[in-house]
Amino acid sequence: MTQLPESQQKVKFYQTGTLTVGNRLLDEEHRNVQATMDRSNSLDSGHRACQGCGEALGARFAIDAAIRATGNQLIAANATGCLEVFTTPYPETAWSIPWIHSLFGNAAAVASGIAAAMKAKGREEVRVIAQGGDGGTTDIGFGCLSGTFDRNDDVLYICYNNQAYMNTGVQRSSATPGAARTATTMPVGAEPGNAFNTGKSVPLIAMAHNIPYVATASVHDLHDLEMKVTKAMGVHGARYIEVFVPCPLGWGSKPGDTVKIARMAVESGMYPLFEAADGELTGVTKIRRRIPVDDYLKQQRRFAHVFKPNNAHQLEQLRAIAAHNIKRFDLLARDGEEL
Amino acid sequence: MSDKVVVQTKPFAITLDVGSSLLNKTGTWRTERPVYLDRLPPCNHACPAGENIQAWLGYAEEGDYEAAWRKIMDDNPLPATMGRVCYHACEGACNRTQLDQAVGINSVERFLGDQALRYGWQMDAGEPTGKKAMIVGAGPAGLSCAYHLRRYGHDVTIFDSSPKAGGMIRYGIPKYRMPREKLNAEIERIQAMGVKIELNTRVDDIQAIRERNGFDSVFIAIGAQSAKHIEIESDESIPMLDAVQVLRNSEIEEPTGLRGRVVVYGGGNTAIDVGRTAIRLGAIEVTVIVLESRAKMPAHEFEVKEALEEGVRIVDLRAVRKIEGNTLTLERMVDSADQWPQPSGQFETFEADVMVQALGQNVETGLLDGIPGVVVEGGIVQVDHCMMTGTDGFFAGGDMVPSQRTVTTSIGHGKKAARSMDSWLRKEKCLPVEKHELASFDKLNTWYYSDAPRTIRPMLDVVRRQSGFAEVVGNLDEGNAQYEARRCMSCGNCFECDNCYGVCPDNSVTKLGPGKRFEFKYDYCKGCAICATECPCGAIKMVPEDI
Ligand SMILES: Cc1cc2nc3c(=O)[nH]c(=O)nc-3n(C[C@H](O)[C@H](O)[C@H](O)COP(=O)(O)OP(=O)(O)OC[C@H]3O[C@@H](n4cnc5c(N)ncnc54)[C@H](O)[C@@H]3O)c2cc1C
Ligand SMILES: Cc1ncc(C[n+]2csc(CCOP(=O)(O)OP(=O)(O)O)c2C)c(N)n1
Ligand code: SF4
Ligand code: SF4
Ligand code: SF4
Ligand SMILES: [Mg+2]
What we know:
The structure holds 2 protein chains of 2 kinds.
Chain A: H1 6-10, H2 54-70, E1 74-78, H3 82-87, E2 92-93, E3 99-101, H4 107-120, E4 127-133, H5 134-139, H6 142-150, E5 155-161, H7 202-208, E6 213-218, H8 222-233, E7 239-244, H9 248-251, H10 258-268, E8 274-277, E9 280-284, H11 293-297, H12 312-328
Parallel strand pairs in A: 1-3, 1-4, 4-5, 5-7, 6-7
Antiparallel strand pairs in A: 6-8, 8-9
Helix pairs in contact in A: 2-8, 4-6
Chain B: E1 19-20, E2 32-36, H1 42-46, H2 53-61, H3 65-73, H4 79-85, H5 89-93, H6 105-119, E3 132-136, H7 140-151, E4 155-159, H8 168-171, H9 180-192, E5 196-198, H10 206-213, E6 217-220, E7 226-227, E8 233-234, E9 240-242, H11 243-252, E10 261-265, H12 269-280, E11 285-289, H13 301-310, E12 313-315, E13 318-324, E14 327-334, E15 342-351, E16 354-357, E17 361-362, E18 376-377, E19 380-381, E20 394-396, H14 407-425, H15 462-467, H16 478-485, H17 499-503, E21 509-511, E22 518-520, H18 530-534, E23 540-544
Parallel strand pairs in B: 3-4, 3-6, 4-5, 6-20, 8-13, 9-16, 10-11, 10-16, 11-12
Antiparallel strand pairs in B: 2-23, 7-17, 13-14, 14-15, 18-19, 21-22
Helix pairs in contact in B: 2-3, 2-16, 3-6, 4-6, 6-16, 7-14, 11-12, 12-13
């Protein structure tokens, strides 16, 4: 008998591997929190987020993972934004964790204060998370955030990046990508939408503070997201995770496509997933099946104008950004490299 | 100012009790609702025996081979046989072909069939009903019908003119493709359920036997046994044989007449089987002459390939016109896109010591002559959608009725006839089985499936294939059978990946536990459709709400 090739016999194959939320063929330790029947549902039903909200999804993913990692010893400080408004129309709340809401711009400082208080009370097993939208993080809350990083306070800050001020009606933030239409960018003219070469990358700025852990994650890759939150809760000091959360309302996308669009952002190179420790890049999540940037953009009305002939230069710039990300973060797997 | 004491029951600035968002039934926002459904996987749809392939692969994925085998046995009593000789229409239809390659369904089926024989897994007969059924022909159609009738609890007797059961699986399909130990064991398993088989019993007068034994109903499946012939001008100096006779003789160890330079005339699988048999019996040279082009010949590509490897030559676009001495006169044919090959008027010669015609078979319908109501059209017996002939309680199936003429189709006919006969015996109407909507490729979200190349079945070395009748294609072992099963995408049927449970932003899916699937919380579901988009296998559908 002719023998089967070695490689084929050795392949460990579990139908969907770790790509799906759960997988009945995987051993328990490789399964996600979200697959368990007794998951904590830190953000429960009945909240008032739009249909298909990526932020609601990202927050439950992240906080449930943090609850598991800390044995439910967790307090959160929340910034104003959709997350706060849709979860908690007074006196109801969708949160099932102890949390505090103070202001739009001070979540990091409030969290630092809670961490200090817990330390003073000798309850350092209680861990603290701050959470906010991109506006609350990259713009108005930026000073407080940098302070928390600077002091290396024992806080994990999670930013849910939907690339604009969604709660107040889609205004531009410093996390809005070039060309994206918002309520406060040029609707017409030679450069409709957000201007290129503006804005900032807070994950890279966080790295510049040399804090113990920084990561980007996306709602389409739950395994990766839970792994990063778990890792972050395994270390002390200031930590930062940014989660990419599509917003159907602000982006002009179909509610049912939220996870798909997040996947497309990552697979096109528009949103690189990486991790860093003590200021050094330690890993990137490779692109699995690369797709053209155009395919990602076409899902969203905020980019519709870039497909008009006289805006071709904008499309070119967006493609160049993806290409640059792919090169900069080395996002493509080499031949034969395991993903 | 009053001096009344105000009792503060709540902390300052709080006037309402804290409530949970669960009070807010967001389900009212919905214009469409997600529903779970089972769609029909294309493999199941294509299987002529109606196997629930996706379901039995599901058990095999988990390593529960016995459950997998029993799921096959719901439809097909001969998995070890089908895992060898079936032309696997299922694999042709498999959605995975559009991703990488089809799931090796046939090889997993064979593994399971062999596993059952190794461990002696058995099926039970149903509770006795007291009804008696008569079957003529112990080929795949007859055996399948008998098996299913026994499972319904009826008493079954098969009559067959041959010395052994199996029909064309035994007397047509050669050993190198179908080892007889496996076939025998699968037939014995059916007999162990109480099916009686009367061998060497040719039936000519069905009604007489029926009345003598008090059979309540009849299934007839005598196949297509007599070879078709075409007249070729010949001085009769070389023998002119027919394929079915040659293969039958090979099976019963009578001289086949295959020697020297053998020419087989025909382009189907039977011609290829004769060619490969001739190689094994030591012919000097074996040539299959085909009227059509190589691309259009009806034989399956993989069988042609195996034959070529073993040394069979194929000469296509030729018609045999005349035989004089050892010399055949061949006319070149011209291929054309839409019609039968056309003669070219150009001739050539070819040397041969024996010629075999392999041009298909006819049904011997003689034994139906006296039966009122039975309709024969173009030599083929007509049946309705319940496999019943024009005579009440008289069913037929397999090669003798309109059919693709494969073992699998015959098994499907046997199953369907048994189901109809069971209804008929219970004086109920035979109703067509409702089919679910198709789980076509566009219903899947294939992102989620890991990349996994198809497993190659080991093959016997060519030298050993040329010199004997040992089985050519090898079996998968447990490891790679399970691997192959896990390549299945479970099209249209929930495989409990937990995606819907995980990706709902509104936490509106309840997980019911292993094997129990999921439920939507319609009180809260906003109808965003993320779950439907992210279900890998297309087991969720969005349907409009009545508003
Ligand atoms: C060489 C060859 C290779 C083939 N290879 C394949 C293959 O690889 N895969 C595949 O799917 N199909 C194959 N086929 C087709 C397949 O074998 C037939 O379609 C199938 O066996 C038909 O089943 P059946 O039950 O209708 O009839 P048969 O298998 O022909 O069985 C009919 C039975 O009835 C008996 N019988 C006939 N007349 C009487 C009578 N008057 N009284 C009592 N008994 C009678 C016969 O002895 C026989 O046992 C092949 C066919 C041939 C000829
Ligand atoms: C100091 C202050 N300025 C403005 C506001 C109004 N405001 C509330 S939420 C919000 C936008 C929040 O945007 P982002 O942080 O990106 O969160 P998102 O709603 O997009 O999730 C604004 C401007 C406020 N609450 N406080
Ligand atoms: S992937 Fe599985 S269910 Fe889908 S067609 Fe192929 S075998 Fe059938
Ligand atoms: S994801 Fe949740 S809210 Fe959206 S349709 Fe499915 S069950 Fe309903
Ligand atoms: S998403 Fe997964 S768990 Fe949900 S119905 Fe589809 S296959 Fe089943
Ligand atoms: Mg925002």
